Amino acid sequence: MATPASSTNLPFGLAEIEAAARRIDGAVVRTPTLYSRVLSERFGADIWVKFENLQHTGAYKERGALNKLLLMDEAMRARGVIAASAGNHAQALAYHARRLGVPAVIVMPTPTPIVKVSQTEGHGAEVVLHGAVFEEAYAEARRLADERGLTFVHPFDDPDVMAGQGTVALELLADAPDVDVLIVPIGGGGLISGIAVAAHALKPEIGIVGVEAELYPSMYGRFAGKPGLACAGDTIAEGIAVKAPGEQTAPIIEALVDDIVLAPERDIEAAVAMLVAAEKTVAEGAGAAALAAMLGAPERYRGRRIGLVVSGGNIDTHLLANVLLRDLARSGRMTRLRIELQDRPGALVAVMKLFSAHQVNVVEVLHQRIFTSLPAKDAAIEVECEARDAHQIQRLVETLGNEGYRVHPVTIE
């Protein structure tokens, strides 16, 4: 069990978090914490889900950004604020800055998708594109802050921001006071720091588990005494793809968080799909990380009372579609079958009749005659298909084999 908040030297405490809750009340959504019967039955635990993906800008970041803005004096607000972000922090700061009449500048890496640039500009912020990676955008934001006299609003390494994020725990524990473990995504550590301070103050015996993407184990490395672990790769959880742990968040996490676990990409994808199916809610990769942690070690949480934080829902629709289709493929409900057959009239029709007989729906057919190692009189087709379950497809494969066709299912990891 981690050290109780009262015995640690923290830059903020429950009083600051409760003050932040009063400060932002009515300007951010008090998101619901709901008991999930489906997930509870699936894991053999009692699971409550905190839906921070229902914030106006789609993520919890509004809480900390707004708290920071409201704590600034009039002179600071008049000069304006600046941040480096290509994601949820940019949206949150831009949105609430416009509400309060505060000029906002957001520095984004040059490769940032145009939709994110447009959304941020739509909230009234000036967008500056600079650098190929986040670190270069961050350095430029710091330079512009000095040059223009703007207040830099850090996405996580700021006590006022962390206190704002801690209001998530106040609401969750008010709605589900019996939870004994909170599972929270970790990027820079602002969310889990605020939650851990609030939760330990209200319920000292509560367990706190943090989750990082396996490809970006920066806080895990520090927490586990393994600094310098590689942080790289295309993770679906880009919202928590942080290469360096926060200087101010790390000591809080070391004091108050019981464990940090790493979620592989496959589990994060599966969690996104599971939240759609079980809760009818859309989570981004980072937002689904808490559930991904349970998928990776279900026995650890069996019989426990769990609070899951779905931290955000800003996922590209095309990426979401890919994730859902890949989940269907992994479950066996969708597959691609490579079938060898003679290249003669009626051959394709004969195969399709077998699909129809088994009530397997054909999604796409690729007929290949040229780019194949088969004899010139033969051909290969690739059929993407879907069924009720894996057994239905397996029965079709067996029938195709019995009819003399050579079938090679194409699978994904």
Describe it.
The chain has 413 residues and is α/β, with parallel strands linked by helices. It has three domains: 5-59 and 161-325, Rossmann fold (3-Layer(aba) Sandwich), CATH 3.40.50; 81-149, Rossmann fold; 332-410, Alpha-Beta Plaits, CATH 3.30.70. The protein has helices spanning 14-24, 37-43, 61-71, 74-79, 88-100, 114-122, 134-148, 159-165, 167-175, 190-202, 218-223, 249-256, 265-279, 289-296, 298-301, 317-331, 347-357, 390-402; strands at residues 33-35, 46-51, 81-84, 104-108, 126-129, 151-152, 181-185, 207-213, 259-263, 305-310, 334-342, 361-368, 378-386, 406-410. The strands form three sheets. A six-stranded mixed beta sheet has the order 1-2-10-7-8-9, with helices on both faces. Helix 1 (14-24) crosses helix 8 (159-165) and helix 9 (167-175) packs across helix 10. It starts with 13 loop residues before the first helix and ends with a strand. The model has no long low-confidence stretch (mean pLDDT 93).
| Assembly form of the protein | single chain
Strand order of the largest sheet: 1-2-10-7-8-9
Taken together, the total number of domains comes to 3
Number of strands: 14
Cofactor: pyridoxal 5'-phosphate
EC number: 4.3.1.19
Family: Belongs to the serine/threonine dehydratase family.
Catalytic activity: L-serine = pyruvate + NH4(+)
